[in-house]
């Protein structure tokens, strides 16, 4: 069984909790793209774990975790997170954490270039996480990147740093920042690469062997569908393929070995950074947005920046379901809506007076969209911690059914709070078969 899981919107859908729940049932939990862009929290009892780079499966001691070839890894951030996990009592060793030799490294100059690139864009900036993700992928596509395996060879590492830094410094200095020095970068990265050596693995071969032994693999997408560099709200996207198709390329697992795709969908939408957001709650709905932000704790896990809040967008989610081929959906944060009198769902878009049923490719079209809403009555009852679908208030159940019909995919899991046991698994669903390991 090889399942891909990813977010259907712009990230922060609550994937961490679902991966954490499923991790017990899988032998391997792996990531296939992205880096330490943003972070998410997983709550277990009174402990909160903030994960940025490591798959959420790391909290389960029997799970092997893999960072795939499609990722960009900042070695400093990698060890900061590893050390933080160890300090929180998680055992981490090369037996249970593997890093692809083909993953690319985020270098200090990539971070600096992320800043200058945003500065250059001014009002059109992307609102990146400024971690150097985009510039690292640019070097990868430009065939000058430094992979984990390259960093293990001092000669290759030094040559690449010197060559790349010459170009990088030209831009960095133009934007009034101090130049970076090759010697310092070499010392820092070679020491970190040496520490990383025991974790380095030919991960595609590792997966092929795991498949022969019928191991169960969960491939965890980071960021989310609408931030995918090909299919998202370009250019306001991240620089990798977060969609399910990226899982094969980014891990080296043949596409036909993947057996299912699970989408994480939240009962409302949020977005961080810039870019179009058709169902965003604007000035006239600020009160509702504030309420949702507060109840849903919609602030960045690492940066603390408030997330833009909006209504559920069925057009965008349908698009995500088509792109990823979702077999089942986990619907998160239903309890956040308990306090609302009215809940709106965007069921269509109007652009320039015309109804459109598909998700537009052009960002400016997305900005001009007038969402067509259907309004549902709120249930105004507590759903926190409910574990059976029949115990949901009738109107909450109707809301779930309405969303499922609009998206065209079953909802197999409903999250009713941040804790592991605050969850409904819908009996007879595809999701329930994944939970029972079939
Ligand atoms: P980058 O990935 O840092 O280049 O940022 C590109 C865009 O993706 C920005 O709008 C970020 O706010 C957004 N983004 C990146 N990572 C995440 C994430 O994990 N959750 C939500 N948004 C993200």
Descriptive overview:
The protein has helices at 15-23, 75-87, 108-121, 133-141, 148-151, 154-174, 182-196, 203-212, 245-251, 286-295, 314-324, 363-368, 394-407, 430-435, and strands at residues 2-7, 28-31, 40-44, 47-51, 64-67, 72-73, 97-100, 104-105, 200-201, 217-220, 260-266, 269-271, 308-310, 312-313, 328-332, 342-351, 354-356, 370-377, 411-415, 423-425. It is α/β, with parallel strands linked by helices. It has 3 domains: 2-100 and 200-261, Adenylosuccinate Synthetase, Chain A, domain 1; 104-196, Adenylosuccinate Synthetase, subunit A, domain 2 (Orthogonal Bundle); 265-435, Adenylosuccinate Synthetase, Chain A, domain 3 (Alpha-Beta Complex). The strands form 5 sheets. A 10-stranded mixed beta sheet has the order 9-7-5-2-10-1-11-15-19-20, sandwiched between helices. The chain is globular and about 65 Å long. It binds inosinic acid. Inosinic acid binds at residues 10-12, 37-38, 126-129, 131, 133-134, 222-223, 227, 236, 238-239, 272-273, 275.
Give the C-alpha Rg. Answer: 22 Å
Bound molecules: inosinic acid
Strand content: 15-25%
Instruction: Give the N-terminus to C-terminus distance in angstroms.
Output: 8 Å
Largest sheet: 10 strands, mixed
Number of strands: 20
Number of separate structural domains: 3
Going across the biggest sheet, name each strand in turn: 9-7-5-2-10-1-11-15-19-20
What percent of the residues sit in helical stretches (DSSP H or I)?
25-40%
The fourth-level CATH homologous superfamily of the largest domain is Adenylosuccinate Synthetase, subunit A, domain 3
Assign the CATH topology of the largest domain: Adenylosuccinate Synthetase, Chain A, domain 3
Integer average pLDDT:
95
CATH class placement of the largest domain: Alpha Beta
By secondary-structure content and strand pairing, the structural class works out as alpha/beta
Number of helices: 14
